[in-house]
Amino acid sequence: MALIVGVTGGIGSGKSALTRYLEARGITVVDADVVAREVVEPGQPALAAIAEHFGQAILQADGTLDRAALRQKVFADPAQRRWLEELTHPLIGAAIQAQLAASRSAYTVLSSPLLLEGSQALLTELVVVVDVPPELQLERTMARDNNDEAQVKRIMAAQLDRQARLAKADIVIDNSGTLEDLEQQAEALHQRLLEKAKAEA
């Protein structure tokens, strides 16, 4: 199995900007958020179970999941969140493992906001944390997602706190500067991971 590197960070930290850079260098990125969307696409058993549990109003007119409505329900009620996680997490886990196994790049990235919360970190050999101060996280997420401050704070509160995340990092990427700063760090990371992958091959 080739080198698998976990990339995580709180909402709005810039994980995606980092992984897009690595992807542009030919690295396979398995994105847990993308996989999570795929398992609830129309025609998938998980979507039928969600509609049955929460009612048809959780679906949009085209039959796809109304993610914003679902997010409001599960972040407001821990029991509903647990129900959803018990349904989707095993499906997401199986799909992630299949995609990691299929990767043929020099090393493979598993990008996940919940990498350190559950068992996903066990799939990786190294953990990279993209870090920004909480106030910047809040500002960037509100600007990007058009979410109100209270909603973003609820999502941040549901994620691992910053100190705990940093304590589990093998490598920290500081993304409090410009995109150019981030790309310089991304290139250095890429070279370091290529060398590590080569040494282990």
> Strands of the biggest beta sheet: in what spatial order?
2-3-1-4-5
Helix content: 55-70%
Structural class: alpha/beta
CATH architecture of the largest domain: 3-Layer(aba) Sandwich
Question: Looking at the structure, what is the overall shape?
Answer: globular
CATH superfamily of the largest domain: P-loop containing nucleotide triphosphate hydrolases
Bin the strand percentage. Answer: 5-15%
Report the span from N to C terminus: 9 Å
| CATH-assigned fold name of the largest domain | Rossmann fold
Question: Which residue ranges are poorly predicted, with pLDDT under 50 across at least 5 consecutive positions?
Answer: none
Q: Mind describing the biggest β-sheet?
A: 5 strands, parallel
Number of separate domains: 2
Q: Could you name the CATH class of the largest domain?
A: Alpha Beta
